[in-house]
Amino acid sequence: MLTPSQGLPAVTPPQAHAVVIGSGFGGLAAAVRLGARGYRVTVLEQLDAPGGRGYVHRQDGFTFDAGPTVITAPFLFEELWSLCGRRMADDIDLRPVAPFYRVRFDDGSTFDYSGDPDAMRAEVRRLAPGDEDGYECFLKASEAIYKVGFEQLGHVSFERWTDMARVLPDLLKLEGYRTVWGLACKHVKNEKLRVVLTFQSLLVGGNPFSTTSVYCLIAFLERRFGVHFAMGGTGALVRGLVNLIEGQGGRVQCGQTVQEILVEDGRACGVCLASGERLGADVVVSNADAAWTYRHLLPARHRRHWTDKRIAKARYSMSLFVWYFGTRRQYPDVAHHTISLGPRYRGLLDDIFAKKHLADDFSLYLHRPTATDPSLAPPGCDTFYVLAPVPHLDAGVNWRERAEPYRASIARRLSETLLPGLEQEVVSSLMLTPQDFQDRLSSYKGAAFAMEPVLTQSAWFRPHNRSEEVAHLYLVGAGTHPGAGLPGVLSSARVLDAVVPHGREMARHFPPPAEEGFAHVRPA
Fold first, then answer.
1. Most confident range, picked from 171-180, 280-289, 512-521
2. DSSP tag of 206
3. Phi, psi at 114, each rounded to 5°
4. Residue 164, exposed/middle/buried by CB under 10 A (0-12, 13-18, 19+)?
5. Which residues pair with 384 in a beta bridge?
6. Phi and psi, residue 511, nearest 5°
C-alpha cells in the first residue's frame, strides 16, 4: 500500500468559502470569527480602503477618523485577537480617556462625566444638590439592565418570537417599557442631570425620548470598562483587524462594489459585483446597512418579510452632519470628547426625529483626538471633527446647497464658545452630510445608525442575524441585533458563532458551486 511518504499526494479537504460584504467593524469582526471557524474568507469593500464608517481621511498632514471614536468595550476587540492566538496589546495601544465626556450646557456651565465614582458624585453634588441618591439608584438600574441586556442577550440571536417572549418578563421587571428619558426622570429631578444621563443614546442613533430604557446599560458599560482611544486613531484598529484576517489566509478586497446577492435553490450562493464578475460562496455575510441589503442587494423575488413597503415604513435613526477640520494652533483646554448642548434639548430632538426639520440651532459633539494622540496633526496643530445630529433624507434638505452655510454656522458657534478665533485658524476642512451617508456609505435614507432603536424595532423585531429570507445569508452591523455602536456591531459578529455552521460542516454538506459562471475577484 502506498503512503504519502512513498509519493501519493495528501488529499486536502475542501474549505468552505465565506464572502463578507463591507469592511466596517461588524464585517471585519465577522471575518475574523469565520476564519477562526474554518472558513476561507473574502471581504469585499466598495470604498478604496477598509473601515466602512471607520474610514480614515488623510489631508494636509491631518488624520481624520470618520468614526466611530468612542471605544467602550475593549474586551470585544481583545477576543478577536485571542481567536487568532495573539494579544491585542502587542498591536494596539489603547489609552483611557478622562473625563469620558465634558458636557457643556448652553449657559456655559460644565459637567465632567467620568468613570471615577468619587469624582462623579462630586460633579452630581455640584450640578444637582439633592440628586446624589437618585443618581446612585439610576446607576444600579443601569447595572441590572446591563447584566440582562448585554451580558445575557447581547450575543444571542433572536430568531423566533418565542425568544422575545422568554425575555419579556425580565424586560418588564427592568422597566424596558420606559424610555431612556423616562428612566432618568424616575430617579433624578434636575433637568441638566437628566440630560447628562441620557445623551449617550444619541451615540447609537436613539432619541432618548423614544428609545427603550434598555440602552441605559451604556452608563454601566462605560463605568465598568471605561472609555478608550486607540493611538494612531480608529484606523489603527481597522489595520489591526485586516492583518488578523490576512494572517488567517483571508483577503480584504477594496474597490469592489457588490451589486446583487446571488440565490440558488433558496440559499445564498455568492455575489455579483458591479463589474459583472461573480464570486461563489458557501455563506454570505452582509455588513452593509440592513435596509440597504434587502432593498438593493437581495432581489425582491427572494423577499417575503422585508418587502420594499415594510422597509420604507420602518423608523430610521437620525443622520449626522460631520465637519472634519485641522487648526494651525492648539486648544489645550478642550477635552478629548465634548458634548456642547444648544438652547433646546427635547425640542431639537423632536425637530430631528419627528418633524424631520433642519433647525437653526444645534447640539454638537466635538472630538479632539490630538488631546490624546498629537501625532494625528502636524506639530503645533490640532485635529478635530464636530458632528451635529440632523434629520435623515426624508427631511428633503438639499445638502449640496445647505452644507456650507450649515458648516459656517457651526464654526461661528464653536468660535463663540469652545474654540476662540476658530474661523481664522482652520487650515484643512472636509464635510460629510446625510447625502454622503446614502451615496458613499450606502445607508438607507442617509440614516447614520440604521433603524431607530425603539422597543418595537429591537431584538426579534429587528432584521435577524440569520436572514429570514434565504438560507446561508447572515447580517452583522448596526441594522441587525443588537444594534449600533461599537459594542453592538462587534456583538452582532459574536452572534454568528451560534448561527453559522462550522466551516468543516458547511464544506461537507454544501460543496462550493461549480466554477462555471463564477470568477475569483481580482485585486482592485
1. 280-289
2. -
3. -140, 180
4. middle
5. 325
6. -60, 150
